[in-house]
Design brief:
Chain A is mainly alpha-helical. Chain A has 15 helices and two strands. A two-stranded antiparallel sheet of chain A has the order 1-2. In chain A, α4 packs parallel to α9 and α4 runs parallel beside α10. Chain B contains 15 helices and twelve strands. Chain B starts with a helix and ends in an 8-residue tail after the last helix. Chain C is of the alpha/beta class. Chain C contains eight helices and twelve strands. In chain C, α4 packs across α5. Chains in contact: A-B, A-C. At the A-C interface, α10 and α11 of A face α2, β6 and α3 of C.
Chain lengths: 337, 336, 256
């Protein structure tokens, strides 16, 4: 039961991780003892006198660090859980939100909503994310079969189209386009605030809850359509109920944090290396692992420099070599088709 | 003998004539070193200029060299500075002046078709520059990172367009204005200079640090740039860092999506001194405050007045503005 | 007379314009082992898939344990009919235990519980796979995978079991184990229907035999036995020789 112990250990990570992250930041203005005092006062143990210096400390912790930590955790968890679900759903360990075009679709939707008044961002991101996945799927489908390679190819095409559309939108709306496009496509968390946390919390929590509830069914679906039908599941229905929440949480993440590279692709593989392939375990572990690791990466980027580096750069730099390792070890094993 | 003398008599004037001709030719060459360190030499002052950057475009109008412009950037027609150029130039008003590119992209073919004898462009656009130079089109590349660069740019444009005296006059005028401002600022003790955070329009966290025109702006205005110790031009900084710097004043570049009011109401910014004391200011518009042009000193004056309202009570910004427009644009823009 | 486990009437099926099955009428008796024989491409697998609900019924009627197949929900069907699909190679290296557990899909609401784990354990012991439970399914041999899928079928606990060529990939020991297992299932009131290649296996183990010929059920005339070489040569299109064995006959194909 080694993987079971490991899973248990992983469940214990997030709480101390979240707490520890409160202490990390680029400024010397807030010392660890300030954070301790702040936490203490929140718990009613120590006093936190409202002098001007403390007001800034309070602002840093409450308005800057806390929302960012929560956002990083939510986005990491959502991208990993959604990536794992999509890989099981498409029976393809090489797909992710980026490869299926979901990310660029959602980013396009969000960008469109930004420049057209009165269109809410989250639903727009969701609809275009869903549209992109749908397109990739149906373009890849021939004779009701979807091969691993054709899905990836059609995904790349769809993703390219939506990236181009995104560029067009930004080109026509933002006078400082290039800078902003870089930040969108590399993903960033430095705009984290309570508004973003609140706007992402509802879709991410609902979608993730749903995916956790049906986690075991992913195993049945991952085996194959006929195999699922033979044991009394309707794969078409099940797939829709996996695809909808997986798209929902991924596009909600993209809407608040842009496209954070390789999280949805590489993190689920890391999780499987740790606890095996049973989705009953990988789904909840994806939540705690994805959230904690992205948070840790963001902590490094926050501690590293006074200026902001898009977090997607770090995740890509970590995820890339890991994927190469999997490739060399022949661990990706897409099976014969 | 006679023949020899005759030959000599014929040869010497010929030699003299050619010598004089070549000497005159040599004298007609104009030249300047651009920001890439490349020497641009033209046989005669440029007559067909394509200008693909606003700083130089407005500079050419200041130099009264606008008749020589044969191509501009599309952004001039689309941007919010259009009416200024329209006022100065009928061709722009009627949208007749060709636009073979915009601030970022250049259509090489359209540029070549216009047969320019000089292209002025940002020197970072190395690919476009290389392509143009392959077509043997002289390119004056500009890169502005501090206020001295603006003088250098004006000087170079003056040389290449044969308007050096006008350029010299403008540079002296602006230097004098700057000195006047400097005179007022120099008496201010360091601890009375407000800590200023400068905010670009792209986002709240986008600013310019130590090595930038913005830094010059803040310093000439008697302020201290909060991130002057970071030796960078443009950066996205950490919000936490801004809170820790706790600036006493925030200067926003002209922003169509945000106003000082938005920053004043943003809970993330609420505890910053500048916000609590309501010292958040936005440049009223882009054209007159353009930091990459000689109009720079007006932006400095504005910032100085925001920084030290008491010391600049007597400065009438409106009058200063009118005077600046009159001098720099030689009366072409009066009454706008 | 008890109602047959499966009752088929007027069943037709076509892929596009290509007709596969013509007007099938078939009663599969309850709690017995029935076998369908026929040559390749005669529609055996299609018939089985129709019974399993994997293909839509175009014409005709199938009733399983008294219920019309069309009106059943997926999970009702899952509880009633178990189907052994032909082999696919899965993408993910799930462990054997995890694969067998998926058989419980129609019984499990969200996550499998203690009871489900017990059923899985029993099913694996029944097919003798206990020692493989933690191994990745993808690393197994074809025969082992087949046995895993059979364990999955048992974990599903259906009342009717449909097996599409279950003996392919299996070595003789596993073939024998499976056939004995089928006998044991019959004793537990289950109905088993298999499509088999080898007529001899059918003669030796089946309680009932059906021949499928070009999409129709063929019933030997004049009370002929199924091992009659004339019957077989009509069904398979090749000649047979029959050899007496115990109270029956075995056949050798291809001899004159």
């Amino acid at each position: 039961m080694k993987s079971k112990d490991r899973a248990l250990a992983l469940y214990l990570i997030p709480a101390p991780m979240l707490l520890l992250s409160l202490f990390i930041g680029p400024s010397d203005a807030v010392s660890p003892s300030d954070v301790l005092q702040w936490i203490g006062s929140g718990l009613g143990i120590t006093a936190f006198p409202l002098i001007p210096e403390n007001s800034i400390i309070d602002a840093v912790i409450l308005e800057v660090r806390l929302p960012r930590i929560l956002l990083a955790f939510m986005v990491g968890a959502a991208m990993t859980v959604s990536g794992n679900s999509l890989q099981a759903l498409f029976r393809n360990p090489l797909v992710s939100q980026d490869i299926l075009g979901l990310s660029s679709g959602a980013a396009f939707g969000a960008a469109l909503a930004l420049c057209i008044p009165r269109i809410p961002i989250q639903p727009a991101a969701f609809i275009f994310g869903l549209l992109a996945v749908g397109l990739s799927y149906f373009l890849a489908r021939s004779r009701s079969q979807v091969s691993i390679v054709s899905l990836i190819l059609s995904g790349i095409i769809v993703s390219g189209i939506f990236t181009a559309l995104l560029t067009i939108v930004q080109f026509f709306t933002d006078p400082f386009k290039l800078q902003t496009i870089v930040h969108w496509t590399m993903g960033n968390l430095h705009h984290a605030d309570w508004t973003r946390v609140k706007s992402a919390a509802l879709p991410i929590c609902t979608g993730m809850m749903w995916l956790l509830l049906i986690r075991w069914r992913l195993n049945v679906i991952a085996l194959g359509d006929e195999e699922a039908r033979a044991v009394g599941l309707n794969p078409e229905k099940e797939k829709i109920f996996i695809l909808l929440p997986a798209t929902l949480i991924a596009s909600a993440s993209v809407a608040v944090a842009g496209i954070i590279g390789l999280v949805g692709l590489a993190f689920p593989h890391m999780v499987r290396l740790l606890v095996g392939h049973d989705n009953s375990k990988t789904q909840p572990v994806s939540l705690v692992f994805g959230g904690s690791v992205l948070l840790a990466v963001d902590n490094c980027s926050r501690a590293f420099a006074d200026f902001e580096i898009p977090i997607g750069i770090f995740t890509t730099l970590i995820g890339g070599p890991f994927f190469v390792y999997l490739l060399r070890q022949n661990r990706l094993n897409p099976g014969e088709k | 003998m006679d023949k020899r003398i005759v030959r000599l008599l014929i040869t010497i004037p010929c030699l003299l004539a050619t010598g004089i001709f070549f000497a005159r030719e040599a004298a007609a060459w104009v030249g300047a070193v651009d920001f890439r360190g490349k020497e641009i030499r033209l046989q005669r002052p440029a007559e067909r200029i394509i200008c693909l950057m606003e700083s130089a475009l407005t500079g050419l109008y200041m130099l009264n060299a606008e008749k020589r412009i044969v191509g501009i950037s599309q952004n001039v027609y689309l941007g919010n500075t259009f009416h200024y150029y329209a006022k100065m130039d009928k061709r722009i008003r009627n949208k007749e002046l060709p636009a073979p590119g915009n601030w970022d992209f250049v259509n090489i073919e359209s540029v070549v078709a216009l047969k320019p004898d000089l292209v002025v462009i940002w020197s970072e656009q190395t690919e476009s520059i290389a392509a143009l130079e392959r077509h043997r089109i002289p390119v004056f590349g500009v890169f502005i990172r501090k206020k001295e660069d603006i003088f250098r740019e004006m000087h170079g444009l003056g040389e290449l367009t044969g308007t050096a005296p006008r350029a010299g006059y403008l540079i002296t005028y602006v230097r004098e204005e700057m000195n006047r401002l400097q005179g007022r600022i120099s008496s201010i003790p360091e601890n009375e200079k407000p800590k200023i955070y400068y905010m670009w329009a792209q986002g709240n966290l986008e600013t310019s640090c130590g090595e930038s025109t913005v830094n010059d702006l803040i310093e000439t205005a008697g302020g201290r740039n909060v991130c002057r110790d970071i030796p960078k031009e443009h950066l996205v900084v950490n919000l936490e860092k801004i809170l820790a710097w706790n600036p006493e004043m925030i200067v926003m570049w002209h922003n169509e999506r945000k106003d000082p009011g938005d920053i004043l109401q943003d809970s993330q910014w609420a505890r910053i001194q500048a916000v609590q004391n309501k010292r958040v200011h936005e440049f009223p518009e882009v054209f007159l405050c353009d930091l990459w042009t000689l109009k720079f000193f007006y932006a400095s004056l504005l910032t100085a007045k925001w920084s030290h309202p008491g010391r600049f009570e007597d400065v009438d910004l409106d009058r200063e503005k009118k005077r600046m427009i009159k001098v720099l644009y030689d009366g072409k823009m009066d009454g706008i | 007379m008890p109602e047959p486990a499966i009752f088929i009437e007027g069943l037709q099926f076509a892929y596009g314009t290509h007709r596969i099955l013509h007007d099938i009428r078939l009663d599969i008796p309850h709690a017995e082992f029935s076998v369908i024989l026929g040559r390749n491409g005669c529609g055996k697998s299609t018939l089985l898939k129709l019974m399993a609900g994997l293909l839509p019924i175009q014409n005709g009627r199938i009733r399983v344990c008294g219920n019309d197949l069309v009106t059943m929900s997926h999970s009702q069907r899952g509880e009633m009919i178990g189907y052994l699909p032909q082999m696919h190679s899965p993408t993910f290296p799930f462990t054997v235990e995890e694969v067998v557990m998926t058989g419980r899909a129609s019984h499990v609401f969200l996550s499998p519980g203690k009871e489900d784990r017990e059923k899985v354990f029993q099913a694996m012991s029944l097919v003798g796979l206990g020692y493989l439970s933690k191994r990745p399914y993808t690393e197994l041999s074809g025969g082992e995978r087949q046995m895993v899928m059979i364990a999955r079928l048992l974990a599903q606990e259906p009342r009717v079991i449909l097996l599409d060529e279950p003996l392919t990939h299996l070595d003789p020991a596993n073939q024998a184990r499976l056939l004995l297992l089928i006998k044991a299932l019959i004793k537990r009131e289950l109905t088993v229907l298999a499509v088999l290649h080898d007529p001899n296996t059918a003669f030796l183990f089946a309680d009932h035999l059906f021949f499928l010929e070009e999409g129709s059920v063929y019933t030997p005339q004049d009370g002929r036995e199924p091992w009659d070489p004339e019957v077989l040569s009509r069904v398979y299109g090749t000649s047979f020789e029959s050899i007496p064995y115990k109270s029956r006959f075995l056949v050798i194909p291809g001899s004159d």
